[in-house]
Design a protein that fits this description.
212 residues; alpha+beta; Glutaredoxin; Glutathione S-transferase Yfyf (Class Pi), Chain A, domain 2; 4 strands
Length: 212
């Protein structure tokens, strides 16, 4: 398999975590979003949306991190990322969607560039915008973890929702968002980061990461 991504992409980070939790090897092909490399015709031929991640599999190319992770879970069912119970699976998918649909899209590079370019948003306004959506989403997720979580976002084993949570927590730290009001999220982030395999999925550990 070949994972097309970018070291600081939250969505690509999700897929790297899923691969790590399942112990799967995957070659990486980076596309620097800052230089527009993802708009190259060769990449658009793989993913017409020109977004990362995209995963080349023996059956073809998959896009969208949630779909990729669920395909990995079905194709490689050992160490499942979704619970066995249908209701529990729906809960986990909802927690993942809270991050993937309601927090992350409002803070990704495309949206921030439009705010700067089309609406002349200042750096302080951008920071406020980012902090608002992350904090609002984390407040709701914190309550859901209190109902359904344990050592991890759902129960006591890492799964799909954790693949979404940790990259968003990384984004919160990157943008200076105060996460002190979310002790359960912070504790889960520490547990996840302490797993050796997951630590290797961290953006700073990727071959295309910026180096000092």
């Amino acid at each position: 398999m070949i994972l097309h991504g970018y070291w600081r992409s939250s969505a690509a980070y999700r897929v790297r975590i899923a691969l790590a939790l399942k112990g799967l090897d995957c070659r990486q092909t980076p596309h620097d979003l800052r230089t527009g490399a993802h708009h190259a015709p060769s990449f658009r031929a793989l993913n017409p949306q020109a977004l990362v991640p995209a995963l080349e599999t023996p059956d073809g190319v998959l896009t969208q991190s949630g779909a990729i992770i669920e395909w990995l879970d079905e194709q490689y069912p050992d160490l499942p990322l979704l619970p066995a119970n249908a209701f529990d699976r729906a809960v986990v998918r909802g927690m993942a969607a809270l991050v993937g649909c309601d927090i992350h899209p409002l803070n990704n590079l495309r949206v921030l560039d439009r705010l700067r370019g089309d609406f002349a948003a200042s750096p302080d306004q951008i920071t406020t915008w980012i902090g608002h959506w992350i904090s609002e989403g984390f407040a709701a997720l914190e309550e859901q973890i209190a109902r359904h979580g344990g050592d991890f976002t759902f129960g006591d084993t890492p799964g799909l929702a954790d693949c979404f949570l940790l990259p968003q927590l990384y984004g919160a730290h990157r943008f200076g968002v105060d996460v002190q009001p979310f002790p359960l999220i912070r504790a889960i982030g520490i547990r996840l980061s302490s797993l050796a395999s997951v630590a290797q999925a961290h953006p700073d550990q990727q071959p295309d990461a910026d180096r000092p």
